[in-house]
Amino acid sequence: KEQNGQPFYSFEYFPPKTPAGVANLYERVERMGKLEPMFVDITWGAGGSTTDLTLELSSNFQQQFCLETQMHLTCTNISKESIAEALKKAKENGIQNILALRGDPPKGEENWTATAGGFANAVDLVKFIRAEYGDYFGISVAGYPEGHIDWFKETPEISKEHYWKDMLYLKDKCDAGADCIITQLFYDVDIYEQWVKDCRSVGITVPIIPGIMPINTYGGFDRMTGFCKTKVPSAVRQGLDAIKDNEDAVRAFGVQYVTDMCRRLIAGGAPGIHLYTLNLEKACIDILTNLNMLQSAPSRRALPWRARLAAGKTPEDVRPIYWANRPRSYMARTLHWDELPNGRWGDSRGPAFGKLTNYHLGELHIADPEDRKAEWGADFLGAAHLDEETHHIKSPLAELNRAGFLTINSQPRVNAAPSDDAVHGWGGPGGYVYQKAYVEFFCSGEHLKGLKEALASYPSMRYSAVNAKGEFETSCTQDITAVTWGVFPDREVVQPTVVSKESFMVWKDEAFGLWLSQWKSIYPEGSPSADLIQGLHDLLFLVTIVDNDFQNGNIFNLFNTAIAKMPVANN
Q1: Between β-strands 437-443 and 138-143, what pairing exists: parallel, antiparallel or unpaired?
Q2: Which of 44, 199, 236, 256 has its CA 20 to 30 A from that of 367?
Q3: b/e map of 16-29 (b: 16 or more CB within 10 Å)?
Q4: pLDDT given for residue 387 in this prediction
């Protein structure tokens, strides 16, 4: 269980086979990461077939998504030297958790055989990791409530003799240095509970986390349970058979059944649940919602943004707001900072931001021109992927875009919201959080002039503006201003989000660069579309507005005043 005594949840994903699948997975993991799972993990692939992609995904989940990541590592089709290299790369990328497995036979082979110069089983793998890295890695191993399938390939179920042999082998894995057990999928809670008792009876003391696979489709459920020889309670089989041709009914049945399973498991003392997502999210979210487990997510959110998991470094607790919608770019550009910003932004900063490259300008998952055309060719007024806190200011933001203020980042004002608030909360229970309203956008010089004239009527508001040439102007009297902060019992005031002139000037290169590298480049050079985008890039200003009146202010009044005075042609 977590430190607050609440059961946790975690998510497992597998490496997709296509670039489009990888793109979709990155987007899904980013969304599901906001649910604050205890950790995520990524499989190694049958027969060791996805080694490089597993390492890439694990590293990006850990470093750029800032999710505690557990990487699967198997003994199938891999030498001891390759295992050593994989562990080295995992450590270099900050990964501190390994799920050590023997692995399945390579595709097309029925029986598992050790690779020459490799490991014979998971026990040997666990021993090797401990011998090479001591306690650096947390090591999980697999447990099989119904017995490992190798014991009963030719029979309907495992014999008692083999059941206890399998149990003692699991104890060997724990004695070799495993920290916890994650189980194979199952659907019969009675079998699981008896198996846990049997584990304890032979001296297995490490935590046991039940592995749960949601039922998404009848065919998928039938194939997976058949492949793993999973026992299915008769009531479940009969219930699903009766509705197998109705996908919605199957999904609803599956969500309810798995919810009831998880509720019983948690009541019985399971420390949490590990969800085998199959790279899908809806059923997982529905199950967690039914269990009321998502309500505690804000209490696990240490900061408004997900901080870097940086072992051995000062914990990061302050960040400029500009990268709020591009956190992965910020992570990449600050990856090699020896010292992360801590306390007030100006007191302790790392070295200069990493050099801007096309890697930073492009998202991890948007490399194909057609993908970028779908992303960047969407309606200006589209509102996809909005954070929950943005929904109640969605309408005024849309009005700004219609008036020529092309918004790219914003936050509403928040005055003393409880720190466990479902939308705005962060920092743990018992505190209060605050935000100054903030809007960032591109606009023309004429629109900026109108805003500056209107600002005289709004003394609580400040602006900063810069164009692609670097011509900068501001009404701020200080280089750094906190726009988010919180007060908590027995702690100093925490101010995790700021606006900063120095960071703004770094961000502007990236913000303007996106117009050309990700948008203009979709179209042929010299085409009307490419020329239009180049013209906008050269013409527009990048502008931020901060309203310091977090108690009663309305940042949109400034825009309404400016728009009302604009000529109709510009409005």
Answers
A1: unpaired
A2: 44
A3: beeeeebbebbebb
A4: 79
* 444 secondary structure, DSSP code: -
Q: How far apart are CA 431 and CA 6, in angstroms?
A: 19
Enter the DSSP assignment of 113.
-
Per-residue pLDDT band at 4 (split at 50, 70, 90): low
H/E run at residue 193: helix 189-201
Nearest to 536 by CA among 447, 438, 410: 447
Report the greatest alpha carbon distance in the chain. 87
- How many angstroms separate the CA atoms of 284 and 32, rounded? 10
Q: Which two tokens stand for residue 547?
A: 């309203």
Cα-flanking dihedrals φ and ψ of residue 528, to 5°? -55, -40
State residue 374 phi and psi, 5-degree precision. -65, -35
pTM for this prediction: 0.84
CB-based contacts of 347, cutoff 8 Å, min separation 6: none
- Model confidence pLDDT, tens digit, residues 330-359: 888 887 776 666 555 554 344 456 555 544
Of 289, 321, 291, 288, nearest to 305 (Cα)? 321
Among 2, 12, 92, 440, the one annotated catalytic: 12
CA 541 to chain centre: 32
CA 122 → CA 13, 102, 105, 349, 547, distances in Å?
A: 21, 5, 14, 43, 58
Bridge partner list, 435: 414, 484
90 vs 361, higher pLDDT? 90
Rounded Cα distance, 254 and 252, in Å: 5
12 catalytically annotated: yes
DSSP code of residue 118: S
Question: Whole-angstrom Cα distance, residue 222 to residue 179?
Answer: 32
User: Which element (helix H / strand E) includes 140?
Assistant: strand 138-143
Amino acid at 4: N
Dist CA 318 CA 70 (whole Å): 26
